[in-house]
Specification:
Elements (H helix, E strand, L loop, with lengths): L1 E2 L2 H9 L3 E3 L8 E12 L12 E5 L15 E9 L12 E8 L5 E5 L5 E11 L27 E4 L2 E4 L3 E3 L9 E3 L17 E7 L11 E8 L4 E6 L14 E3 L8 E3 L27 E7 L9 E4 L7 E3 L8 E5 L5 E3 L6 E15 L10 E4 L6 E3 L3 E3 L2 E3 L5 E5 L7 E9 L2
Length: 424
């Protein structure tokens, strides 16, 4: 015997909004019978016990029709009225069609109240493959028009929890193709599916081989963080997150992206590197460091700040300077260029040719003041003060030897100072 609580009864009356389909190949058939009223609570109860609960027999109707014991379920039309029975005719009643699962006893107990009435009409039943069908002339394939599919005990209500072993269709006129199949136009501000929560409105993904609700088993989530007003898509695995891998455009801040990734109305903040195989086009490039360098083949592995000259023994290679006033001066090894050109290699160094960079300088023979011109020295990889020469009474610096201008002083010894590179 099945006893429906008020909550379950309400659920049953609302569930025609859903269709749990038999499917096209389950072999379940619908047997139609002449409609028969099996319950009408608008009339007086047969006994005082029936005041709050009515017992309905589904397998033997009061219309002299005995339904087979092998029936899987019964097609029932339910009319509910919130007021007295005379209200059934003036539009206040609600009609629902549903399939009630067969019970071992064939009995169904329904709660009733004084301010609501129920009318149950049965118009057929469902049977499985291989069972006799009566009448034999009326057994079209089952086309689900309501709620329950008990052909394989696929729906149960236990402690207000609903268990379904089958597919659910919403708004469909044919069996659903997937486990949850929803059809219907967008509901303004609600869409077709709505999740409500006070903390996180979340959909989580699990492997069916490990369905236990643990952080280790959880593969990923899509959720809305109500506390922080954030929408989050989180993959807990190493596979990453793919957006339109088929090649469609992705827009951020725009409903009409024109590129594969189109960001409008804001900045892009990257904590790592940006690697591009194509061109980068823009207005202004802002760099923290202030020199421009390029990857150049080099002899050895000179440290940052080393002054280098062209290697006259090899094509397209530089080497640390070893001669004063060398006209082959080519630049300085940069520790952190603001703009770096070329392709990296273990046999190359970042050689700065313009901008501000730290340079190894010797002040052994002459102190260096801010604004002094610097040239190569005979100390390996080191610059020094440039002594001008007198040409017709005019002091000039040797052309092609200048490394740059000192931006910091060095009174004696050797050290690193900031230099404005200006090879000339």
């Amino acid at each position: 015997m099945v006893k429906l609580s008020v909550a379950v009864l309400i659920l049953v009356l609302l569930m025609p909004l859903f269709t749990i389909a038999f499917g096209q190949d389950t072999g379940v058939h619908f047997v139609r019978i002449a409609p028969c009223r099996i319950l009408d609570t608008s009339g007086p109860p047969a006994s005082p016990a029936d005041e709050s609960e009515r017992r309905v027999r589904l397998d033997a109707t009061p219309c002299s029709q005995t339904l087979p014991a092998y029936a899987l379920g019964y097609s029932v039309k339910v009319v509910t009225s919130p007021m007295a029975s005379e209200k059934l005719a003036n539009g206040t009643a609600a009609t629902r069609e549903l399939i009630v699962p067969a019970t071992p006893t064939g009995l169904l107990n329904l709660p009733v109240t004084s301010d609501a009435h129920l009318v149950f009409d049965i118009d057929g039943y469902y049977v499985g493959t291989g069972t006799p069908i009566e009448p034999a002339s009326d057994h079209p394939p089952a086309v689900p028009h309501s709620v329950f599919n008990r052909a394989a005990t696929t729906l149960d209500v236990v402690n207000n929890d609903l268990y379904v072993n089958g597919k659910i269709g919403v708004g469909l006129s044919s069996p659903p193709a997937v486990f949850l199949d929803v059809k219907g136009d967008n509901v303004p501000y609600g869409g077709q599916l709505r999740l409500q929560a006070s903390d996180y409105a979340q959909i989580s993904f699990y492997n069916s081989a490990a369905p236990q609700l643990t952080n280790a088993n959880r593969l990923g989530d899509i959720y809305y963080d109500i506390f922080n007003s954030q929408m989050v898509v989180d993959n807990h695995q190493a596979g990453g997150l793919l957006l339109n891998p088929s090649g469609a455009k992705v827009g951020i801040g725009t409903m009409a992206p024109t590129e594969r990734l189109d960001v409008r109305g804001g900045n892009v903040n990257v904590g790592g590197n940006i690697v591009a195989s194509g061109s980068i086009t823009g207005g202004t490039v802002y760099a923290t460091y202030q020199d421009v360098a390029e990857w150049v083949p080099v002899e050895g592995a000179p440290p940052a700040g080393t002054v280098v000259v062209l290697n006259r023994a090899k094509v397209n290679e530089v080497t640390p300077c070893v001669k004063a006033y060398d006209t082959a001066v080519a630049g300085v090894v940069s520790g952190q260029p603001g703009l770096l050109l070329g392709t990296a290699s273990e046999s190359k160094a970042k050689i700065a040719t313009t901008g501000r960079v730290k340079v190894r300088v010797s002040a052994r023979t002459h102190p260096v003041m801010i604004g002094d011109l610097l040239v190569t020295s005979d100390i390996r990889g080191t610059a020094m003060f440039s002594e001008p020469i007198d040409v017709g009474g005019v002091k000039i610096h040797r052309p092609g030897t200048v490394v740059g201008k000192a931006l910091e002083p060095l009174s004696s010894g050797e050290g690193e100072i900031l230099v404005l590179l200006s090879l000339q």
